[in-house]
Amino acid sequence: MRQLAITADDFGISARVNAAVVRAARDGVLTGTSWMAGGAAADDALARAGDVPELAVGVHLTFVMGRAVLPPRLVSAVADDDGRFPASPIRQGLRLAASRRSRDQLRAELRAQIERCLTIGRAPRHLDAHLDFQVHPAVFPIVAALAREYRIPAVRIPRDPLRPALAFDHRHAPRKLLEAAIFSILCRRAVAIAHDYGLRVADRVYGHHQTGAVDERYVLDVIRRLPPGVSELYCHPGAAASAPEDDRELAALLSRDVRAACERAGIERRHYDG
Fold it and tell me: Whole-angstrom Cα distance, residue 83 to residue 91?
């Protein structure tokens, strides 16, 4: 069995991204999306998602490079006076590691992001985080506990196989090697916690090493190499291009060749929460 979930991140960050996600789900191979509760177009995103009820919507937990859902006074240890999170993941990571107050405020903020999704009427199918920050050692236990509390069945753990990533594109090998070294340790711990909490995780997650450079050629390469088991590929349609016709990630999701390759290989396109 080869099962592939194809997920679009940053749903809700802008109307352009929202339109790309819905089009990729309606006319392409997209199976799921990760919604940003604090995004400028968050309400528009979930309204549009009603047009594609088969689209699996999860929450893209945000605590770097975004805005808090809670009032600034309630997140003063993790955000500025305007409720904006720091742009630096290193800064936020150190803060969360060092301060229990910051972790308590983070827990409250992430709870509010999940509850906003529920209030609007969608039961989240998975949790992940902006910049894959959910696997931070101080953060993942909070995410796992919230997933179990709200009966969210799955979490993303970005175990992106290094060898095929380097074989496909070796131009950024030093970055990919460093990412792999760091995330292999973080992901191993996160998988153990996820299993303890009874949460589903994909066997592997593609796109982490290729963030910002997913295109049709990359997706076809993933399909060609896909091993048995449950896999996820995530991408960012609508994020980089100024017009839909220039959006390589959206084009990959709409590609007839990609759909045909999945069918020829007997790959089931289905969200990884079951």
Answer: 16
